[in-house]
Amino acid sequence: MRLVFVCQSCGCHYLVPPALRYPDGGRASAVWCSVCQLAAAHRGASEPTELAAVAVLLAVRALKAALAARATREQPRRADRRPTRPTVTSRGRTRPAGARARLA
Ligand SMILES: [Zn+2]
Asked: Domain residue spans in the chain?
């Protein structure tokens, strides 16, 4: 699973490669998408370090929440599962609890 970030400049959601490294050797930003990162580089603006740290934390938290939500969604019922037989105690106990022991 990869982290999804929200660009702090244009607001789009973007995926970053693992370890924030592009195949060409460039470093991905946790703050800006590739387009806005390029624009910021042309402006000469550097990535705010605190914002990048917070963005990574938020992305990790969102990933964990998504995984937890998926785990609880897949678990409860399966379509191919047959209904279970009702438990013995729910079938109606008419005799007193000690009746079988006395007949034997
Ligand atoms: Zn952007």
From this structure: 4-75
